[in-house]
Amino acid sequence: MRFIALAALAFVMIAAFAQAAATLPESFASVNTTADAPTPATGKAAVDQLIPWLLDEDQQLRGVPFSELIFDTTGRKVLPFDANNAVDQRVAKMISAACNETMNRLNAPDSEIQNIDRINEVSSHFEDILRQLLNTTPGLRCDFPLTVEGKLQRSGYPDLRITDLESKRVYYLDPKLYAAGSRDSSFRTFYFEPKKSTNKVRDDAVHFVVGFEHQPPHRSGSASAPRETASGSPNEGGSASPKTIWQFTRWDLVDLSRFTVKLKAEFQGSNRDMYRQEAIVASSAK
User: Fold this and answer.
1) Residues 57, 246: Cα–Cα separation, whole Å
2) Which of 62, 138, 158, 198 has its CA 20 to 30 A from that of 129?
3) Reported pTM
4) Residues paired with 207 in a beta bridge
5) 129-140 burial string, b = 16+ CB within 10 Å, else e?
6) Alpha-carbon distance 134 to 98, whole Å?
7) Rounded distance, CA 111 to CA 105, Å?
8) How far is CA 24 from the centre of its chain?
9) How far apart, in whole angstroms, are the C-alpha atoms of residue 282 and residue 279?
10) Using an 8 Å Cβ cutoff, are 33 and 24 in contact?
11) Distance between CA atoms of 139 and 259, rounded to whole angstroms?
């Protein structure tokens, strides 16, 4: 429960600073934090304690076991992959076959990803093909996991829910795409938002990430017939828009049972919060 205790402290302090009733978001409703509305003095005292706690991230906010985070926020266990378990061996082999076929399909010159400019727009194609392949694999069922409210939500962890029909053992699979050479990068590539209404982890399950590595995109263009310009005259030097070519070179299936994460605390504000009439100092001529 270490993660809950730390997060509860942070949220209580922030709530006190805002001079609102000190209650946690619903995802932490199991922690009893109800209190009377704080005074300005107690709000200042709370933020005076909060800031040093946030700055001391090496001690407090790093190295949180992902399995502990999942259990504390969902009540579900992260089951370790067991290389000696026949079910785990069989399912990992079938996932591996689906990953190979997915990469082969999407590397094809005529695949649907080969004219997509942004890698972020490619990831959903991996999810769709993996789901299709795994759902047609004998002995498996694969679908998009539903939230606790029974709603389909593509965003957020995890992306796919796999069930071994014989044993009823559940596996969560989250595809990730990364550029060659960035494997050791410290930039954020994984996130989990502990929110009750959108939680999609509803089973004790093995948790997998499958990372697909890609080369830098190659852009190719071919000469085309003259194009008419805005003025109506032909553009003799016209060419077709460059085509973005993606090439994926490898994949790794990762067991998250020993994965550790860190909490990134940030203060947020909206446009409504910023652009208040009384705060505007100057504006352009209308």
Assistant:
1) 38
2) 198
3) 0.72
4) 172
5) bbbebbeebeeb
6) 6
7) 7
8) 23
9) 9
10) yes
11) 28
Domain positions in the chain = 2-62, 78-218+246-261
Task: Give, for all 286 residues of the chain, the pLDDT tens digit.
Answer: 555 555 554 544 444 444 433 333 444 344 444 445 556 566 667 777 777 777 765 555 678 899 999 999 999 999 999 999 999 999 999 999 999 999 999 999 999 999 898 898 999 999 999 999 999 999 999 999 988 878 888 888 899 999 999 999 999 999 999 999 998 887 778 878 878 878 899 999 999 999 999 999 887 764 444 444 333 444 444 445 567 899 999 999 999 999 998 887 778 899 899 999 999 898 888 7
Structure tokens given for 37: 């509305």
Identity of residue 42: T
CA-nearest of 24, 23, 20 to 40 is: 20
Q: Which amino acid would we find at residue 72?
A: D
CA distances from residue 141 to 76, 111, 122, 132, 259 in whole angstroms, order as listed: 20, 25, 23, 10, 26
Structure tokens at 140: 């498996």
Specify the amino acid at residue 239. Answer: S
* Topology, domain 78-218+246-261: ECO RV Endonuclease; Chain A (3.40.600)
CA distances 179 to 108, 148, 217, 251, 254, Å, are 18, 34, 9, 12, 17
**43: Cα within 13 Å, side-chain hemisphere:** 14
User: Distance between CA atoms of 147 and 10, rounded to whole angstroms?
Assistant: 26
DSSP state of 78: E
Distance separating alpha carbons of residues 209 and 254, to the nearest angstrom: 5
SS3 content of the chain, % helix, strand, coil (to 5): 35, 20, 50
Q: Which two tokens stand for residue 249?
A: 């070179």
